[in-house]
Amino acid sequence: SGILYVVATPIGNLADITLRALDTLRSVHFIAAEDTRHTRKLLSHYDIHKPLVSYHAHNAEERGPELIDRLRQGEKIALVTDAGTPAISDPGGLLVTQALEAEVEVTVIPGPAALIAALVVSGLSTHPFAFLGFPPSRGKGRRRFFTSYAAVPMTLILYESPQRLQRTLEDILDSWGDRRISVARELTKKHEEIFRGTVAEALEYFSENVRGELVLVVQGAQEKNEPEVLEEDWKEELGRLI
Ligand code: SAM
């Protein structure tokens, strides 16, 4: 049968694409893209002419089986999304699962992902970390989201839209406390900006209208300074003193 190539594309700067990604986009039968107009810009920049098929959140259910059929018939398909690595907070994940269920070979052409780009310049611990994706926008699910990660001792990475940044920073401050945070805005683009400070400082800094794409990297819950062994150590120390 065919091959599904999961191809990472730039998160802003068109030059951030690998040679292998370009070769793959040139060699496949067709490209499944989240937004064909968006992808066409990338392709024409590199003078690549390939049929595009749209594959996005709203047509994934019907389009998925069609694509799987074509893969089974031996076609090679590249899956791309609007930015970065497909399946990371975008529609690609479902197609990968379906392809694997159909025993189709799936292979990755790695490249940019906003979460990794933001993590490495955050100044926060790069491991362990947890990627939380977009927080639920409202209701119980949202409350549960923030409370359930409050005690996780890992750097936490979130995606958020500029319209929701304020509210999300407020909820982080309420549920997780005034930790260190880095907010990466417009990575690899002309107006790239990395904020580093505390959550309260970020709230103040981003109080005006915010534009662009954002990744939040938040310090994990700090382990208590009193580990269980402390009592033992303390008794030993006391014994030595008296
Ligand atoms: N698949 C993508 C990836 O690999 O990162 C993520 C897709 S998700 C639909 C889009 C979100 O990723 C944006 O809302 C933003 O949180 C983040 N993002 C994408 N590009 C970015 C950039 N250049 N700078 C900052 N954040 C970015």
TrEMBL record:
Q: What does this protein do?
A: Catalyzes the 2'-O-methylation of the ribose of cytidine 1402 (C1402) in 16S rRNA.
GO CC annotation terms, alphabetical: cytoplasm
Catalytic reaction(s) noted: cytidine(1402) in 16S rRNA + S-adenosyl-L-methionine = 2'-O-methylcytidine(1402) in 16S rRNA + S-adenosyl-L-homocysteine + H(+)
Q: Which residues of the full protein are shown?
A: 10 to 251 of 286
Keyword S-adenosyl-L-methionine belongs to the record: yes
Q: What is its EC number?
A: 2.1.1.198
The name this protein carries in UniProt is Ribosomal RNA small subunit methyltransferase I
Which of the seven top EC classes does this enzyme belong to?
transferase
Can you tell me which family this protein belongs to? Belongs to the methyltransferase superfamily. RsmI family.
| The keyword tRNA processing belongs to this UniProt entry's keyword annotation | no
Q: Which organism is it from?
A: Desulforhabdus amnigena
Q: Which domain of life is it from?
A: Bacteria
One annotated GO molecular function is: rRNA (cytosine-2'-O-)-methyltransferase activity
What's the gene?
rsmI
Q: Tell me, in one coarse class, where this protein mainly resides.
A: cytoplasm
Where in or outside the cell it occurs: the entry states: Cytoplasm
